[in-house]
Amino acid sequence: MRLNTLLPKSFLVSGFTLMAAALLLTGPLLLPNTAAAQARALPDFTDLVEQVGPSVVNIRTTEKVTVRPSGDGGNDEEMLEFFRRFGIPIPNAPGGPRGQRPGRPQQEEEQPRGVGSGFILTGDGYIMTNAHVVEGASEVLVTLTDKREFKARLIGADKRSDVAVVKIEATGLPAVKIGDTNRLKVGEWVMAIGSPFGLENTVTAGIVSAKQRDTGDFLPFIQTDVAINPGNSGGPLINMRGEVIGVNSQIYSRSGGFMGISFAIPIDEAVRVSDQLRATGRVSRGRIGVQIDQVSKDVAEAVGLSKPQGALVRGVESGAPADKAGVEAGDIILKFDGKPIEKSADLPRLVGATKPGTRASITVFRRGSTVDLTVQVAEIEPDKVAKKEREEKPKSNSAGQGYGLTVSEVSEADKKELRLKGGVRVDAATEAAARAGLRQGDIILAIANQEVGNVKDFEAILGKADKSKSLQVLFRRGDWAQYTVIRPVK
């Protein structure tokens, strides 16, 4: 018999009146202890904070900047500002730049650069953080929870994985426990400790929202709804067993603040990188020399695959390991070193994690059947970035900006080095161009199947382009020529 069938409508106004009715019918002994039930259902993070908190550190960085000393009377800047405000020509100071007093050379001084977080890997002072936390820093300062401060030495940083290791001269430090990301489940409670906006030892909590999230070249990120803000970068993501299972690295935000989506580097990947940094100061990754794409449902049906899986080979670099092994354009790589390739992003991660020089097996799907090949993995090379020219180079104007592109001329020296006839260099890629994968340093060779010889050609082609339609772009990055499509904003 349902409760609401026995009561007049006036009793069903609120939860309070409904509870009163329940007391009348069942008595107080049958009423569940709601507060106690909720307390049992929600996790308690207090023990975890006491356990892991001492292993989390605050990281401050400084950088050297050039400053101009003020005059003896302390009024030089005020006087110069007076001249500028009223349009009065600033007198040249003999022996120095315009407006600078003679005999007063510029000086370098340390200024605050940023704040981040980190955690202690070993008791003898090795600390893990993000590469972007320490990038460009002239000095790294580490503060422990007991307020001791140390000047840290950078052991190594890897931009591709955003992992860095620094070292402080101390012993007996409380090191973290490393967890197993394979045991991590979506929906599991996790906690973060860090220094958002410089607020040291801030604790936030949430759940794992997703695993294997594709947002990086070599990393399947852990997605959570733990509150992460600037300053949390490099701090640990901790499970309910007090183990570090990730390194907080990125957030998705339209405002610059937390919006409920944050990403952490899986700790197994981070530890693998940190071990190499501690051993050699750099990270060595494998490569086989193929251009790949996702296998769509249409492609799978066309070639006879039972389901969309693997990595479609769009091109093979001449003389590269894949070429020597017999991999062909049009092949679909299903396995690498015995491990299945479910989606194309799996292949660069598996190859990158393979030690150069290793002989690995590759299983490809070719013309209706599988073929087993053997490849000797080579070492990946950093992208070639041409030296910037000192002279001012012509840059694109309005036409490029409409697609989020700013470009400049490629110098004759760079053309000779890269064996190019023409092209324009990407100085900045935002909005539509960034979404298409273009980035600073790329060299655009053709647009809409028309060769781009210089900035003038670039402007002319884009000026005639229909901005409501997709734009096909051929560009050069390092030794590779690649295609991408800039799609219009809808």
CATH architecture of the largest domain: Beta Barrel
Counted by DSSP, the helix tally is 13
- Give helix % range: 10-25%
What is the overall pLDDT average? 80
Total tally of structural domains: 5
- The fold-level CATH name of the largest domain is Thrombin, subunit H
The SS-based structural class is alpha+beta
Rg over CA atoms: 29 Å
Major beta-sheet overview: 6 strands, antiparallel, barrel
C-alpha geometry: globular
Measured between the Cα atoms of the first and last residue, the distance is: 56 Å
Low-confidence stretches: 1-31, 93-102, 383-393
Number of β-strand runs: 27
Strand percentage lies at 25-35%
Just give the CATH class of the largest domain.
Answer: Mainly Beta
Strand order, sheet with most strands? 1-2-3-6-5-4
